[in-house]
Amino acid sequence: MHWSGKWCGWLKGELDKLGIDNFFETFPDSIMARSEYWLPFLKNHVKAGENDIIVGWSSGAVAAMRYAEDVKIKGSILISPSHTDLSDPLEKQSGYFDRSWRWDAIRNNQEKITLVYGDDDLYIPQEQFEYIADQLRAEPVKIHNGGHFLEQTTFPELLEKIKIM
Predict the structure, then answer these.
(1) What pTM was computed for the model?
(2) Which residues are catalytic?
(3) What DSSP letter does each residue of 132-165 carry, written as one string?
């Protein structure tokens, strides 16, 4: 989905109104979301670093975790991530799940991690969120009837988390 769809365009508008610098751009290889394209894009194009908060949704959240294994960032808000390929062929091809997670590095390379997920996500099992929250000592934010956040046109809970980071 293009970043401007659903709640993403709303979030950009709200951040702009608050004067918060932000970067919204469709990543290369946006359908398959492969690490070989997304991680270099974060490093070389977005140039996310120590003063930046990465808000990643689904595959973007997985990319944010992998990125933080090697790069210091201010923090991350992980929306509906997974830590396994969920036996999905496209996820398997993404390259994010080909090696063990370096949970300590992800945790130590940022000040704060928040994990946002729906209590009724149809794509990612709840155990995935619980495991990630535990490994990263992330602040869990479970949203009733949030699903995979595909239907929302606004996301005020996310905006509040960004403001306090």
Answers:
(1) 0.95
(2) 58, 121, 148
(3) HHHHHT-EEEEETT-TTS-S-S--HHHHHHHHH-
